[in-house]
Amino acid sequence: MTISILCGGSGTRLFPLSRELMPKQFASLLPQSTNSQTKSLFQETLLRNIDALRSLDSLDSASIQVITNESLYFLAKDQAKEINIHIDSFICESYGKNTAPALAFSALYASKYATNKENEIILALPSDHLINSHHYKECLEQAFALAMQDKIVTFGIVPTFAHTGYGYIKTDKLDSTRVLGFYEKPTIQKAREFLAEGNYYWNSGMFCFKASALLDELQTHAKSIYQMCKKVFQVSALEKSESSENLNNHKQNKNCKNQCLRLDRALSYELEDKSIDYALMEKTKNIACIVSDLKWSDVGSFEYLSQEYPKDIDNNASNTHFISKDSHNNFVLSNRPVIGIGINDLIVVDGGDCLLVSKKGESSRIKEILPKLKTLNPEILKTHATTHRPWGSYTVLLEGESYKIKQIIVKPKSRLSLQKHFHRNEHWIIVNGSALVTINGKETFLKANQSTYIPMGQTHRLENPGIIPLVMIEVQVGEYLGEDDIVRLEDDYLRVK
Predict the structure, then answer these.
(1) Mean pLDDT of 182-210
(2) What phi, psi does 193 have (nearest 5°)?
(3) What whole-number distance in Å separates Cα of residue 483 and Cα of residue 11?
(4) 12, 244, 306, 446: which has the fewest Cβ within 10 Å?
């Protein structure tokens, strides 16, 4: 069995907490508690399914797969490692082409590499949903049984109100596993009619199928997608990564490696951008639905996220940094104190470098503003002040005309690429840990309170040879300080172009 977790997204719906390089499944959205292991929806998804498989006695035979953009590969890997879970395989996309190609690649991968080959059962799940119900295990049991019968299984959620933001699945009133139709996001009037009918369910975007069954159905109903995905799959490179024997994960007492299938960039560009619903589910008759009253949310807006946070006596939800007077029914997220006086029904979200203030019920209109923001400051849509990299992270502390100051943190036994810049000089000051610095081929060992200087044009590399994180302050000086002023000559993470 393969649990295939879909980690796409553009990071726009929950901006400014989510960004292009930190889509919502990886962002720190959830309220923190002393007994919580997790900080992201992706981590919640991993743990939820590990626990469900363990309770079904299916954990030892299960394989965990993540399908994501190549720029998010190391972020997904690091977050899984934080909660001691081993990812068996990654499928890395150069371009997000929606769920039809993603699921096709998962099935093609299983047919070639999985234990059961074409008979492998795949549970395909979004990475950014919240599910809080003990019924989840029972839903999976039913889905696995139907998938073994070569059914393409989808999951319908019993609606609790007339929602216009979800698609709907219509099933037979006498046999809820029998699907009669798929419907896109309805008007409020149509959603009310669906609710009254009693046999329309929210489309959760979760699927379960046998690899061969999905590929057969794609050949029949979406032949061009099937053929192009197969062509891309055949020429794509499979890489094996380091062992994970130190993780206390579901592969207990095994020396685990993961495989990464990097989809061919040039051919991937030609793939159709189409959802599995459009490409297949609306056409196939070989389909079944598992209906459940799971407590489920796709966390598609700050209004829904606010439901996960505790509320005070005035119905204000926050992450403990909100100090209020005569203020009611607000949702406030910030890492610094926020004072509210006489405010009601507001959403206030502090992204560090950008602040969102919205009336409740209006926050989803952020998509109307982002094109203008992209024109004014395109970089702000891509990343936060803190940017994660395979080797660690950097935070922009201060920026002005002709200078930029960063805090750089390098993970133990990691190093940056061998690189050079054409438009800036750099001053490095070691704050904590130790650094091996290479400048024009000469290596120098630096420790805390020591510094060095790299003139523009000189090749250089920063490495952390120690066992604790290396913390460094970098001062850049030059006429142009963009992140694209970098020429990589060698790189441990295959980023040399």
Answers:
(1) 96
(2) -65, -40
(3) 20
(4) 12
Under DSSP, the state recorded for 119 is G
The arithmetic mean of pLDDT across residues 174-195, rounded, is: 95
Which DSSP helix (H) or strand (E) runs through 205? strand 200-210
Query: Residue 496 to residues 76, 441, 492: CA-CA distances in angstroms?
Result: 21, 18, 9
Residue 120 near residue 111 (C-beta atoms within 8 A): yes
How many CB atoms sit inside 10 A of residue 176's CB? Answer: 18
Question: In 10 A of CB 198, how many CB atoms?
Answer: 10
Number of Cα atoms under 13 Å in the Cβ half of residue 456: 13
Give the model confidence (pLDDT) of 458-494 as tens digits: 999 999 999 999 999 999 999 999 989 999 999 998 8
* Contact between 233 and 105 (Cβ < 8 Å): yes
> Based on C-alpha coordinates, what's the Rg of the chain?
24
The pTM assigned to this predicted structure is 0.90
Q: Helices marked H in 61-162 — which ranges?
A: 73-82, 99-113, 136-148
Q: How far is it, in rounded angstroms, from Cα 296 to Cα 439?
A: 53
In terms of Cα–Cα distance, which of 390, 462, 470, 454 is closest to 422? 454
Contact 62, 250 (CB under 8 A): yes
Burial class from Cβ neighbours inside 10 Å (0-12, 13-18, 19+) for residue 53 reads buried
329: left (phi over 0), alpha (psi -120 to 50) or beta: left
Q: How far apart are CA 59 and CA 274, in angstroms?
A: 32
As a whole number of angstroms, the distance between CA 421 and CA 77 comes to 29
Neighbours of 42 (CB within 10 A): 27
Asked if 461 contacts 485 with a C-beta cutoff of 8 angstroms, the reply is no
Residue 218's contacts (CB-CB under 8 Å, 6 or more residues apart) are: 100, 104, 107, 225, 226, 229, 279, 280
- Going 60 to 229 to 300 to 180, the CA torsion angle's sign is negative
State how far the Cα of 266 lies from the Cα of 235, in Å rounded to an integer: 11
Q: What is the DSSP letter of 277?
A: I
CA 78, chain centre distance (Å): 12
What 8-state DSSP symbol labels residue 301?
A: S
Q: Higher model confidence: residue 243 or residue 353? A: 353
Q: Inter-axis angle of helices 99-113 and 223-235, to 10 degrees?
A: 50
Q: Which domains does the chain have, with CATH numbers?
A: 1-294 (3.90.550.10), 300-364 (no CATH), 384-488 (2.60.120.10)
What angle do the packed helices 41-55 and 73-82 form, to 10 degrees? 60
Distances 18 to 10, 26, 93, 316 between C-alpha atoms, Å = 8, 8, 20, 22
Q: Do 460 and 454 meet the contact criterion of CB atoms below 8 Å apart?
A: yes
